[in-house]
Write a structure and sequence with these properties.
Layout lengths: L26 H6 L7 H31 L5 H4 L1 E4 L2 E4 L3 H24 L12 H24 L5 H31 L6 H7 L3 H30 L20 H6 L2
Antiparallel strand pairs: 1-2
Helix pairs in contact: 2-4, 5-8
């Protein structure tokens, strides 16, 4: 077989393996059907789509919310908590959360297909699910800690909890006018004010506090584990040669001799 530069795709001369030709890629099969094979460059294209989708859906909405906050626009709508199955996410990051859950599956499928084509054990694709599993474990532990914190904060022995309940009851009985006077008096005196963060936590339900603690523990663990899985994908899976024969390389690169041998 005679090799000429750009023979596979004149517009992409760096593609030197006909199996990597973009027109041969079936996106639906690549992303959703685990029973098949995916060639090297097709894997790279799918991985890039998933990575860039997550990145843009996180960075762009967050940046818009940041700029809107600087401009004086109320951020209540951006930060409004939205329940998503077991989790609670800010409304501004809901598209990111949905896309991330979807791509956890598609990433697993793409890795299974690529490892199968390269003659490696498809079981190794479980590595890309490790961040999700660790995140779920951390979330479960965090929610337990948050629930325990709620019970401790609202226990009868907690004088601050008792004080808060008494204040609420007094405000309800005295009416809006009396409550307004109490607020003005407290503001003028400036004394006895509690930590604002702790005061906000006291107003949360047990479920809200538990979910907040769970997300606070799960997100950094998920992120760090995802970074490790990303390195494994880029340094190992993405460099596997088509058919499992040949050298580990980045990109669709074959020598004329390899093409002639049909490697």
């Amino acid at each position: 077989m005679e090799y000429t530069a750009g023979a596979v795709d004149p517009h992409r001369p760096w593609i030197r393996d006909a199996r990597d030709a973009p027109e041969n890629m079936n996106w639906w099969q690549t992303l959703f059907n685990p029973f098949g094979k995916t060639y090297k460059l097709h894997f790279t294209r799918a991985w890039t789509l998933m990575f860039m989708g997550r990145l843009l859906l996180y960075v762009i909405p967050s940046f818009i919310a940041f700029v809107a906050g600087i401009a004086g626009v109320s951020s209540d709508g951006f930060n409004k908590p939205v329940n998503l199955m077991l989790f609670t996410v800010p409304a501004v990051l809901l598209p990111f959360a949905l896309f991330t859950l979807l791509t956890e599956y598609t990433s697993f499928v793409v890795h299974v297909r690529r490892l199968t084509e390269a003659g490696r054990s498809a079981f190794m694709a479980v590595i890309v699910l490790v961040p999700l599993l660790l995140g779920l474990i951390a979330y479960a532990l965090g929610t337990q800690a948050g629930a325990a914190q709620y019970r401790q904060m609202h226990s009868p022995a907690n004088s601050e909890a008792v004080e808060t309940r008494a204040e609420k009851k007094g405000e309800e009985e005295e009416g809006e006018d009396a409550a307004s006077k109490d607020t003005q008096t407290a503001a003028a005196g400036g004394g006895g004010a509690r930590d604002p963060r702790r005061a906000a936590m006291m107003q949360m339900s047990e479920r809200q506090l538990a979910m907040q603690a769970g997300m606070g523990m799960a997100f950094p663990i998920w992120w760090l584990a995802s970074f490790g899985a990303m390195l494994w994908s880029l340094m190992y899976v993405a460099r596997l040669p088509n058919g499992g024969e040949g050298k580990f390389r980045t990109g669709s690169h074959m020598t004329p001799e390899e093409i002639a041998r049909g490697v």
